[in-house]
Specification:
This protein is mainly alpha-helical. The protein has one helix and no strands. The chain is elongated, with a radius of gyration of 24 Å. Keywords: Membrane, Transmembrane, Transmembrane helix.
Length: 57
């Protein structure tokens, strides 16, 4: 392998694994949402169905 190929191999490895490590650290610090935005509740009196709608094809 040429020195340029080795350089790009090392650089791409650092970018990929560095991004993975950074995302794991970020999710470790802020793993859950503290508060959800308003308007996400189901309206009172409206039925909630567990099954998806049936589509007639």
């Amino acid at each position: 392998m040429t020195p340029v190929a080795i350089l790009f191999l090392v650089l791409s490895t650092v970018v990929v694994w560095g991004g993975l490590i950074a995302s794991v650290v970020f999710l470790g610090r802020r793993s859950e949402i503290a508060e959800y935005p308003p308007g996400g509740d189901d309206p009172a009196g409206e039925e909630v169905y567990d099954l998806p709608p049936i589509r007639d094809t």
